[in-house]
Amino acid sequence: MTVAGGDEFLRGILVYSRRDGQETENNSGTVDAYPANWHSDAFLASGIWQPNDEHKLTSTFDYYHKTNHTHYDTWDSSGNSTIGTANQTSQTRRWGLSLKDDWTPMNDYLDSVSTKIYYQHTEAHDWTYMPDSVTRRMQTVNSNYDTDTWGLQTALAKPRAATI
User: What InterPro entries has UniProt attached to this entry (predicted)?
Assistant: First the structure.
């Protein structure tokens, strides 16, 4: 779903997407794909304020979340035979914010200056219930990986004069 609108000074867009799915094909005639059941949600909001010809301020927020449920064979420590089934739930999340200023000063020294500050947070979490490869007792294995990224970037532009 998308909604957008605006005028010469203020404009924006909102976008939402929902997807649901199952396992993908593995292109094997002998081995089946492991079952999976997943869904994802994504959202984007962006707005632009352009008070004059020299300045344009853009803000953006985006969000993504995917959940995946699956189960698959668990192998013994030698890798020769299956000893049970592992059930896994995975959660992937990402969201970010950014603010960007585009300045075109219309002078002899600079053609444009673009400055952007941003932040992004990501999470990858897996919860797996599976048999231990040696003792064969059921165990829960959790893995979490989270990151936070901050950034600032600036670009200046001034083309050189052409020489003949």
Answer: Beta-barrel_TonB_sf
